[in-house]
DNA sequence: GCTGGCACTCGAACGCCAAGAGTGCCAGGC
DNA sequence: GCCTGGCACTCTTGGCGTTCGAGTGCCAGC
């Protein structure tokens, strides 16, 4: 068990290292923090912290830097979440309020997060599986060509082309549109498959082929789009990463290009509460020198998607967590309003 | 006027430098290219090329590297466009053919371009101004809430929420929908404003407010969405940029984050034919050490949008130009089919 | 107009040394 | 028992001079 002061020393080390990017020594610590003891004492504490694996020395005659384990302890026990200032809050709200559609909301959220945290921001589009259907529209582009448009309660829109096996009249189309909407509007996407499964039976023989095709396309859209989309931004913040550039930044950029990786990353975050993954806690290889701070957001109580930032393990955790939480909260509000 | 051989020397310098990333000397040139003369002669030629500003020495006792002006001459007079191999062509076609919707087409195009050229790829979504209207849909979400959906011939879909000043009945809605479509389907977006300007006059007094609102929203959407969207990818290729990382890469990443900058960049490319902007020819400050290779693409004869890559001035121009042109061609085909 | 020869320049690499930061440990004091 | 001042030790960092080699420019000769 670590004494109170040793924890205090760890906190001081983390804070200083985050600020200066340089290994911090015992003397510097006593100068910048009122620890009430001499450097020699701090040295003993540091030796103990190193034995426990919370800090490490890059080389023998250098100061100490926190390890992943050290950051973990810091985040779990030593640091709170730093709330944003009220000007910041107002700025967020203003900026998000002027969004015109869902794409715009997401785009603005990304910019905002990247600016506030000075890190790479990742925002997932509201998920289809947890959303409900607001409307299904069928348009006839030609007698044998339909367009299916799917609108969610979060404002997301998906469309698909459909080639009909046989000409499909306007009355049949209106009929199908009405029946389809009657069954699925307001329901969750996950429930749609059962809700429409016997729909084609109520149609004339000649139209059944088309109806079946439409239903198949609808279900396909649901499945395909469960592969969620996301938007990232603030990659130029990666340049503030460290000194040994190419090696560090390369795998990160590569990971960021892989939507699958990012979705998995966000997916592993808890539904509620802020999740912080530090360095090697990250499953993906290219991201072992980064930390991920993620949180769910949603229009109601439940999270419909997640957002977060990716940055160096040496980051300002309290500030980042505060910004991420605040942005998630406001985006949730915006979505609820629309 | 430069002699034939001196041009040949310039070509050799560009090729070698692009391959090795290192200043190329007279001896190395004679070894790798059959120029038929001795290093001393090459040195004279190089001195001449340097006088003309086509090549430069990083420092006195180093080899030469091409200047922007040198690359320009190379691109204009010395290099052709290298066509892709037929396996590559087949791969492109296969990859693009399996796209499910417009977003997917664009996303795949970006990946493809980035992979083929090993550079940062930028693809603009098909522009609204040059597109035609395929369909306008109006959905009633509640008696006082409408959704406007706009579908283009390139498959792009835009939607907007509309709050009606007064309740709007289903029959009025159907009427408006029919009249709207009758007027604008198949027409260019640019022509829409005049086509709908007196539409509200044929409606009952009580509905006019709503009709006016709908029309206003439609026009607003046209204007707003003329601010085009685009997608970028392959940023991890920036790591292969050069040796002096942070300074070079930072402004590039920043420029890439600014959609406005990129749109302007692509916008300045010619409508037909490949445009190559080299180094300082680029208007944007952060991109003075990059070259941009861009080309228009479209479903018909006319370009509806542009795509291209951004890379170091030291790039394989013939190969890059070949890849960009080929990808643009295939994307055009895909769009024409859908 | 090309070529071989030659002197020259200059950056990269290396080794060396001194300075400074930081540590670990120990003996003494509260 | 814990803290502290002192001290020897370790290593990195930066400056400096030297060497090495690539590449150049120029010139005389063919």
TrEMBL record, chains A, B:
Gene3D superfamilies: 3.30.450.40, Heat-inducible transcription repressor hrca homolog, domain 3, Winged helix-like DNA-binding domain superfamily/Winged helix DNA-binding domain. Keywords: Repressor, Stress response, Transcription, Transcription regulation. Signal peptide: none annotated. SUPFAM superfamilies: GAF domain-like (SSF55781), Winged helix' DNA-binding domain (SSF46785). The keyword Transcription regulation applies. One of its GO terms (molecular function) is DNA binding. It comes from the Bacteria. Belongs to the HrcA family. Negative regulator of class I heat shock genes (grpE-dnaK-dnaJ and groELS operons). Prevents heat-shock induction of these operons. This is Heat-inducible transcription repressor HrcA. It comes from Streptomyces beijiangensis. The lineage of its organism: Bacteria, Bacillati, Actinomycetota, Actinomycetes, Kitasatosporales. The gene is hrcA.
